[in-house]
């Protein structure tokens, strides 16, 4: 039984050792997002961006408005006035009011729910995706993306970022030519630095929606560690007391 247990443990560790480099390799070309789900002010700014630019198409069907108020340090009145544009009740989940059939006609398919997007693709992917839209007349919606090529989605933040165009390698052109870099063709309402900070906030908010319990788990974890430290100290004193009697008897 012990040998079987040790073999299973070794196999699990081996698979984990293989999986970690594979995951790292998948996103190794993407600059880190720098998103911080424990920065409440960042989450509030990210929520504002999501509800002003994203909720028209995308839902967060596993997140309730009431939970957002609790975790983001907002009152019910603030949430309902500033974040609720669909007429939902405070205890309901965040559902886009875009009709599914209309979305399929406009984009070819219904826009995905974004609740678990950060768990599925990671915050670095989301951050770089939001920064990598460029104009592409060959695409049905007029936009393309270097992180997710041929995505059926226009740039929802183009007013903030401005309009980017693709610069291809010298001597190469056409829709299939690789993009060497992106250049800002028309300025938006934000500077590039301000836009990167904004998409970092939006990324943090989406990372939070993927696992709201992470915020609570951190605060609880601190108390658990303190409890374990205190318990360890008490057990040490108890052990010392027991062994003192044993030593004295000898």
Main attributes?
250 residues, mainly alpha, two-stranded antiparallel sheet, 6 strands, elongated, disordered N terminus
Molecular structure report:
This protein is mostly helical and 250 residues long. The chain contains 10 helices and 6 strands. It has helices spanning 2-26, 40-53, 65-72, 76-82, 100-107, 117-121, 123-130, 158-161, 192-210, 213-249, and strands at residues 60-64, 93-94, 133-135, 143-145, 162-168, 179-187. The longest helix is centred in the C-terminal third of the chain and has 37 residues, at 213-249. Mean pLDDT is 83; it is low at 1-27.
Helix content: 40-55%
Largest beta-sheet characterization: 2 strands, antiparallel
Q: Strand order of the main beta sheet, please?
A: 1-2
What is the count of DSSP helices, taking H or I runs of 4+ residues? 10
Radius of gyration: 25 Å
In what range is the share of β-strand residues?
5-15%
Cα-to-Cα separation, first versus last residue? 39 Å
What characteristic shape results from the CA principal axes?
Answer: elongated
Rounded average pLDDT? 83
């Amino acid at each position: 039984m012990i040998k079987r247990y040790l073999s299973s443990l070794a196999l699990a560790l081996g698979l984990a050792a293989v999986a970690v480099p594979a995951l790292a390799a998948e996103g190794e070309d993407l600059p880190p997002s720098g998103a911080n789900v424990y920065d409440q002010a960042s989450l509030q700014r990210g929520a504002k961006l999501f509800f002003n630019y994203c909720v028209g198409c995308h839902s967060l069907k596993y997140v309730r408005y009431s939970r957002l108020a609790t975790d983001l340090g907002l009152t019910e009145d603030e949430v309902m006035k500033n974040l609720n544009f669909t007429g939902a009740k405070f205890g309901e989940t965040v559902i886009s009011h875009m009709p599914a059939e209309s979305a399929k006609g406009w984009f070819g398919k219904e826009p995905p729910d974004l609740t678990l997007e950060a768990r599925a693709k990671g915050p670095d992917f989301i951050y770089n995706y939001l920064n990598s839209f460029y104009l592409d007349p060959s695409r049905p919606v007029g936009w393309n993306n270097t992180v997710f090529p041929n995505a059926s989605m226009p740039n929802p933040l183009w007013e903030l970022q401005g309009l980017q165009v693709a610069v291809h390698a010298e001597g190469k052109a056409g829709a299939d030519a690789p993009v060497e870099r992106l250049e800002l063709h028309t300025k938006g309402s934000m500077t590039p630095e301000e836009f990167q900070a904004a998409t970092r906030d939006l990324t943090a908010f989406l990372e939070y929606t993927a696992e709201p319990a992470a915020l609570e788990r951190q605060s609880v974890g601190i108390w658990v560690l303190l409890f374990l430290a205190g318990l360890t100290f008490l057990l040490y004193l108890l052990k010392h007391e027991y062994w003192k009697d044993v030593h004295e008897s000898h």
